[in-house]
Design a protein that fits this description.
Elements (H helix, E strand, L loop, with lengths): L1 E5 L3 H12 L3 E6 L11 E4 L2 E4 L10 H10 L4 E5 L2 E5 L2 E5 L3 H8 L1 H17 L7 H9 L1 H16 L8 H7 L5 H9 L10 H6 L7 E5 L3 H14 L3 E4 L2 E7 L5 E6 L5 E6 L1 E4 L3 H6 L1 E2 L4 H9 L2 E11 L9 E5 L7 E4 H4 L10 E9 L4 H4 L2 H14 L8 E14 L5 H15 L3 E3 L1 H5 L5 H17 L16 E2 L2 E2 L17
Parallel strand pairs: 1-2, 1-13, 2-9, 6-16, 10-14, 13-20
Antiparallel strand pairs: 3-4, 5-8, 6-7, 10-11, 11-12, 15-18, 15-19, 16-17, 17-18, 21-22
Helix pairs in contact: 1-10, 1-18, 3-4, 4-5, 5-6, 5-7, 12-16
Length: 498
């Protein structure tokens, strides 16, 4: 059996790794001419390595953790997590430190913040209609304004009232003000290998340690790609998929353009796509019904760029990353790559920071020259007091289109419509991963959707509905949680499962 995989990101490579390990002929098509890993790749510039965003390796799923260990058994570091929030000229530890918050805000503002929390609990009724309502009910209006509004609107480029409450419910799942306070007063025990019971109780937002490849996340996915090749799979780098045609004979015909500019076709028995869901629908032949095409065309994505700044001085702050809650600055987050792994630095006496900006490709920011972006990022780093004039000696820019599927107020219905059309008209086509399912998630979720898809293909039937994998990479069916004890799903999609 020949399997085609579109995209060599975490989802595509996970599926290919498992299927090639079972002896199947796997063909992967990746548009990037050089790097595997998708948004989890590691970019190298003059010996400095940096992520496209930060990627913690922690999962509630032991199966995912075990797969990481299998692919990269000897190069995973155990790292302590340190991140803070910058707000009004001060840094706040996250998870929150109660004494620090009171000291930074002052007793009066702290009391008003607590009062705002209880007011929200007493006065909010009904289901939250959007992200602003959800966070305000959960934490109170003052904490929403301080620690959620500015950063979230930078990420998505629209008011929080226009963002689906689903996003908050998934990304902040299980977290409450009381839980943050308990964590601050009694920090969670840091355990490299917690047992399954402990793992299932962990709130991922509050973890105090995680694993991380010595040379960044791309190191793991490069190792996965090498193992796939050793198993007989083929990864076609720099190859773009132009169209996907169902032959009506149980096969898919994939039209390709190689990096040399040659037009080719390949027939496969099963097709796995981690490409953006809107792109997939637009490239299917025969076309899906008009209502599905309209829904796919309305799906939105947020783009992202990193300005990596190299400093002649060592790191000036201890964090893995910082969240910048300041509406006067365009930077949303700052990665400190040497604090993820010292081996990310070409010179340990220097520092390398990733200044992260969220935008759309139509924005002026996206289309500015690299030199202008480096100058802007340098000015913002100086304004934060994290560097001195003359410290920045070099820089590089990486642009990542379609980094985040947008959770606007209509995405749920659009995605439901597309799922129904794919289920009816596209046998043997499987969608996996963040963009493939238009579902904001972490790489462990992407991997679990691919793992279950591989099981379905090997079984020759749909044992699992991958749409039931939740944000924590747990499979949910009839109240059962955990991919290790899953039960078969109905053949047709039956809800988001998140």
């Amino acid at each position: 059996m020949r399997i085609g995989v579109i995209g060599a990101g975490p989802a595509g490579l996970t599926a290919a790794y498992l299927l090639s390990g079972a002896g199947l002929d796997v063909q992967i098509w990746e548009s990037d001419p050089t790097n595997v890993g998708g948004i989890s790749r590691t970019v190298t510039y003059k010996g400095y390595r940096f992520d496209i965003g930060g990627h913690r390796f922690f999962s509630k799923s032991k199966e995912v953790e075990d797969l990481w260990s299998e692919i990269l058994p000897n190069d995973m570091l155990q790292r302590n997590r340190l991140s803070r929030i910058y707000y009004r000229g001060k840094f706040y530890s996250y998870p929150l430190d109660v004494a620090e918050v009171v000291d930074n805000l002052g007793k009066r503002q702290s009391l008003l913040t607590v009062a705002s929390y209880f007011k929200a609990k007493l006065t909010t009724n009904g289901k939250p209609a959007n992200l602003e309502d959800w966070v305000t009910h959960k934490f109170g209006g003052r904490l929403y304004q301080m620690f959620f509004k500015s950063y979230t609107e930078k990420v998505w480029g629209m008011p929080c009232r226009d963002i689906s409450a689903d996003w908050a419910a998934q990304r902040i799942k299980g977290l409450s003000l009381s839980q943050v306070a308990r964590t601050a007063l009694r920090p969670a025990r840091s355990t490299p290998n917690p047992d399954d019971r402990e793992r299932s109780d962990v709130i991922k937002t509050l973890i105090t340690s995680f694993r991380y490849p010595r040379h960044g996340p791309g190191m793991l996915w490069e190792a996965a790609a090498e193992k796939i090749r050793n198993r007989g799979g083929t990864i076609h780098m720099g190859t773009r998929v132009n169209s996907l045609g169902y032959t009506g004979q149980g096969k898919w015909r994939v039209s390709l353009r190689t990096k040399e500019g040659k037009e080719q076709q390949q027939d496969v028995d099963q097709l796995i796509s981690s490409a953006p869901l809107g792109w997939l629908v637009d490239h299917l032949q025969p076309s899906l019904p008009a209502v599905a095409l309209e829904a796919a065309g309305a799906l939105r994505y947020r783009d992202f760029l990193t300005v990596a700044l190299i400093l002649k001085t060592p790191s000036t702050f201890p964090d893995n990353w910082l969240y910048i809650h300041d509406s006067l600055l365009q930077v949303g987050r700052i990665q400190n790559f040497g604090n993820w792994s010292p081996e990310m630095l070409a010179d340990p006496s220097k520092a390398c920071y990733g200044m992260e900006y969220f935008c759309d490709r139509s924005d002026h920011l996206w289309n500015r020259s690299d030199a202008d972006l480096i100058q802007m990022a340098t000015r913002e780093l100086l304004s934060l007091g994290l560097a001195q004039d003359g410290d920045v000696i070099d820089g590089a820019v990486v642009r990542q289109p379609r980094a985040y599927p947008v959770y606007d107020d209509a995405y749920t219905e659009r995605r439901r419509c597309i799922r129904a059309a794919l289920s009816e008209h596209c046998p043997g086509l499987h969608v996996v991963g963040r963009n493939g399912m238009h579902q904001y998630n972490n790489q462990d979720h992407s991997m679990m959707t691919a793992m279950l898809t591989a099981r379905n293909i090997l079984a020759g039937q749909q044992l699992y509905d991958v749409w039931r994998v939740n944000q924590d990479a747990e499979y949910i069916e009839s109240g059962v949680v955990g991919a290790g004890n899953t039960t078969p799903a109905d053949p047709a999609p039956a809800g988001l499962g998140v």
